[in-house]
Design goal:
By secondary structure, the chain is mostly helical. The chain is built from seven helices and no strands.
Length: 175
């Protein structure tokens, strides 16, 4: 039963993530992204990481998506769409090249991985893996520096969003 649920959630995740990329309406893209976050939270529940599932729903599907929707509604998309048409071919070419390189890297990494060595036997599984106490211990001992770097990245993104949103009416973006 868990296998079928996993495959269903994986299918929904991949399909909704593709719809985020290929949807022409930015509001629809945000709604597909919310669906992606909910399906990822379902996968967290299957992996016995209930805390991560709840945090994913509260933080990402809740707060971040409301922020995304606010920014999309706040921006004037008509003038941005006119400028984007001029650079559209160059951006598409850069996207195809970078996606091809990323696909090549992923395939080469998957070829080199020995999956049998990474599968734990059933008796060695820890049922407390996704619980809050163990997550906190891992996060603040082994992953303290990446955790703090992620917080600095989030602060820089918030400052950048505020600076982009506060531009004057007559100003134009340089990029």
């Amino acid at each position: 039963m868990a296998d079928k649920l996993f495959y269903f959630l994986a299918f929904v995740t991949v399909l909704s993530a593709l719809m985020v990329v290929f949807s022409k309406n930015p509001v629809h893209s945000v709604l597909y992204l919310i669906l992606t976050f909910f399906s990822i939270s379902g996968q967290y529940v299957i992996l016995n990481a209930q805390f991560l599932a709840v945090v994913n729903i509260i933080v990402y599907a809740g707060a971040i998506m409301v922020l995304f929707l606010f920014v999309i509604m706040f921006l004037n998309m008509r003038t941005a769409a006119e400028d984007a048409r001029k650079r559209n071919a160059l951006i598409q070419l850069a996207g195809v090249i970078s996606s091809g390189l990323l696909l090549t890297i992923v395939i080469s990494a998957l070829v080199r991985v020995d999956m049998a060595a990474h599968i734990a036997p059933a008796k060695a599984l820890n049922t407390q893996v996704g619980m809050v106490e163990n997550l906190g211990i891992e996060l603040f001992t082994n992953f303290l520096v990446p955790f703090e770097l992620a917080s600095v990245l989030f602060i820089a993104a918030m400052v950048g969003a505020v600076l982009l949103a506060k531009r004057e009416e007559g100003e134009r973006n340089a990029f």
